[in-house]
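The instructor's notes for this session suggest beginning with a concrete chain rather than abstract definitions. Hand out the sequence below and ask the class to guess, before any prediction is shown, which regions might be ordered.
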Amino acid sequence: MEFITLYLEQTAKIARSISPADIQNLVDEFVRVRDAEGRVFFLGVGGSAANASHAVNDFRKIVGLECYAPSDNVAEITARTNDDGWRSTYAGWLEVSRVGPTDLVFVFSVGGGSETPEVSPNIIEALRLARARGARIAAVLGRDGGFTATVADAAVLVPTVDPALVTPHVEAFQAVLWHLIVSHPALKRHETLWERTRAPVAATA
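After discussion, reveal the predicted structure:
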C-alpha cells in the first residue's frame, strides 16, 4: 500500500507541475498542421512507440488529421535496421514520405535522445532531417529533454519527481497529454463511442 500511495501522490504532483502554457503550445502546433492540411509523424521507441501508434489512431479518428507512426510498419523498419542500421530507420522513412514544411514531427521519448551516450539515435537523425526539410517539431519528453528539446518548436517536459520511476511516469503522461489534446475543443471533430453512448435515465414514478 505504501508504494501505491507514493506512486499516486507523485502522479498528482506531476499533473500539478506541468505548464498549461506548454500544453497550449502543443495544441497550437496541431491546429497549424490541420489548417495547412499537413501530416503528423509520431516517433517513439519502446513503450513510446506503442504510444505513438495509439496517438495515430486518436488523431486520425477523433481529430481527422492525417497521421503516421513509422514504427507501425514493422517490415520496413526491420528491413532498414537489417540493411542500413538502426540510426537511419526513421529518417529514411520520413525521407520517402517527403516530410516538409506543412508537416509536424511529434516525438514521444523518456529522454529525448542523446549523442553521448548514444541513446535513440534514430530519433536524432529523423529530427535533423525534419529540421532540414522545414517541418515543425513537437514533443512530450522526460528528464532534461535531451537532443529533442534542443530542436523542438514546442515541448512539454514531464518533471522528474522520483529518479527511480522516470520511465513509467513519462510514458503514462504521454498518454494523458495526447488524450487532452485530441479532446481539446480547438481540435476535436468527432465524438468517441462512450461519450455518444449515454446511460439511460431512470424512469420516475
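Then share the key points. The first strand starts at residue 39 and ends at 43. The two ends are 45 Å apart (CA to CA).
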